[in-house]
Amino acid sequence: MAKSPEEEHPKKALGWAARDSSGVLSPFKFSRRATGDKDVTFRVLYCGICHSDLHMIKNEWGSSTYPLVPGHEIVGVVTEVGSKVQNFKVGDKVGVGCMVGSCHSCDSCSNDLENQCSKMILTYGAKYHDGTTTYGGYSDLMVADEHFVVRIPENLPLDAGAPLLCAGITVYSPLRYYGLDKPGMQVGVVGLGGLGHVAVKFAKAMGVKVTVISTSPNKKKEALEHLGADSFLVSKEQDQMQAAQGTLDGIIDTVSANHPLLPLIGLLKTNGKLVMVGAPEKPLELPVFPLLMGRKMVGGSCIGGMKETQEMIDFAAKHNITADIEVIPMDYVNAAMERLVKVDVRYRFVIDIGNTLNSSN
Ligand SMILES: NC(=O)c1ccc[n+]([C@@H]2O[C@H](COP(=O)([O-])OP(=O)(O)OC[C@H]3O[C@@H](n4cnc5c(N)ncnc54)[C@H](O)[C@@H]3O)[C@@H](O)[C@H]2O)c1
Ligand SMILES: [Zn+2]
């Protein structure tokens, strides 16, 4: 008979797990594997709450298994390293993002695109090489293959840096890959949430002119004055949207729910690119004619490879890019999830795991 999550590995761990698609999280005792030759073990200090965690605890993508410990914006301090670990030592500040394994031999892996490997192993809710379930960062301890561990630069704060492990790379990678990183270019960011607000910061640091497109007029002042966006469009205001037709080289669409693409495609210049990174649970309607007429393109992007993730973190540290966060205690996580549904956070919740996750919860 298979061992229980609490007994299958030698290291005792405590996390918060959802038990079913109600998505309610509660304390969960499980275990982590012993530090292998190439493993880095670290004490988790902070973990961001990504909207994907919300999709997953509620099984909105239909792939969740329970108990599910979410969390893939994980940072902490190394407590132990395996004998063959080359890049990390005890005391280092490190992070783990959305994946913890891949095949290391396919074309994608050979090209530093582990995120595109068909055998990529997600940080939680997946099966690891040894057949055991992966559990995420809403927990006190992580053990991960050093290949999937990122070094956090000294000047990057751990709490506000944590969201970069998912939100950061998810927007950095398409800006680079789709060539939307050239100074002076005009790039739109749709959905000013966790991903969207760091997209504005990365694009600005690349020298791009940024237009935020949002349903909420009340985010305008902050987008322009605080995040440094160059302009702001309220997507429901026909006049504004009409006046901005054909002005953008590209758009990063971070919206988490169903929304019309036609107005966004209209904002693109000829040859413009609409890049989807948000992951709504239902398919979106794609109007084809406006694509044909302007030779426009709709693409997608999913996190980024490990090499690029380290590059993104180093770029963020150099340009002082962090997420705007609300730090919360572990036992506030269910309330935080409810607020995330209502888009009531500016702009990312980060759980203070180090100080607030303990067995008395
Ligand atoms: N592609 C990837 O690799 C990747 C990585 C991380 C997250 N995601 C996905 O990206 C999406 C955004 O994640 P997040 O953590 O930034 O979420 P978030 O909740 O912080 O932000 C989502 C934004 O979308 C806006 N929004 C929601 N519904 C909308 C609607 N109907 N019309 C217009 N705007 C709407 C909200 O106002 C909010 O600003 C999620 O679907 C998430 O699963 C994808
Ligand atoms: Zn995420």
UniProtKB/TrEMBL annotation:
Cofactor: Zn(2+)
Reactions mediated catalytically: D-mannitol + NAD(+) = D-mannose + NADH + H(+)
Its EC number(s): 1.1.1.255
Pfam families reported for this sequence: ADH_N, ADH_zinc_N
Keyword annotations of the record: Metal-binding, NAD, Oxidoreductase, Zinc
Matches recorded under Gene3D superfamilies: Medium-chain alcohol dehydrogenases, catalytic domain, NAD(P)-binding Rossmann-like Domain
Segments forming domain Enoyl reductase (ER): 23-351
Source domain of life: Eukaryota
Keyword Oxidoreductase: yes
Keyword Zinc tagged: yes
One annotated GO molecular function: zinc ion binding
GO biological process: lignin biosynthetic process
Task of the protein: Oxidizes mannitol to mannose. Provides the initial step by which translocated mannitol is committed to central metabolism and, by regulating mannitol pool size, is important in regulating salt tolerance at the cellular level.
UniProt similarity note: Belongs to the zinc-containing alcohol dehydrogenase family.
Listed PANTHER family: ALDEHYDE REDUCTASE
Protein name in the entry: mannitol dehydrogenase
Species this protein is from: Morella rubra
